[in-house]
Design brief:
39% of the residues lie in helices and 19% in strands.
Length: 198
Amino acid sequence: MNRALEFLLAPDQRIDFSLRRALGQVDGVGLERLRGRNFTIALLVATTFGFAVALGFLGAAVGDSATPVTAVNITGDAIGVKGYDPVAYFTRGQPTPGIDQYSYRWKGVTYLFASAEDLQLFKANPEKYLPQYGGYCAYAMSLNRIADINPSEWTIVDGKLYLNNGLFAQSLWSLNKSGNIESADRNWPQYPKKPVSE
């Protein structure tokens, strides 16, 4: 298996069996048997397909940098991180839904936590646990766009939480994390932001 595609087929990427099968076969030939030009063409097609899908979701997303967005990506009830516990990404190493019993309102946004311990950690240092770019998609922000997130598509880099829209965005973002972070860090301050209603 070529190392360039291992990230697509790794079990921890949560790719379902049918997608693995589709990626593992091109006209009935396993990717491990593809060589030279055929492999390059297959890789180009897979990358182009992923990029096209990613751009498709971005086109349907909120918009470009001229459209004001709320400073934090919230649900209709002003809940951040779609109700997931932002501390759990760091303490449990996985996305964990929060519960109403452990909630905390900070700067107009309500955050939910899975435990009293996570709530206390957040209260002590909210900035440490909040996702980058107001909780919007990190890959979209690297392209100077805004997109919603899927709390299951996440990464921690240098102690900072990055969320993405879906598997394709997460995969494309992961190909060049440092470059995408640099681009997104440059783009995020340029977005006009509306305050979150208190």
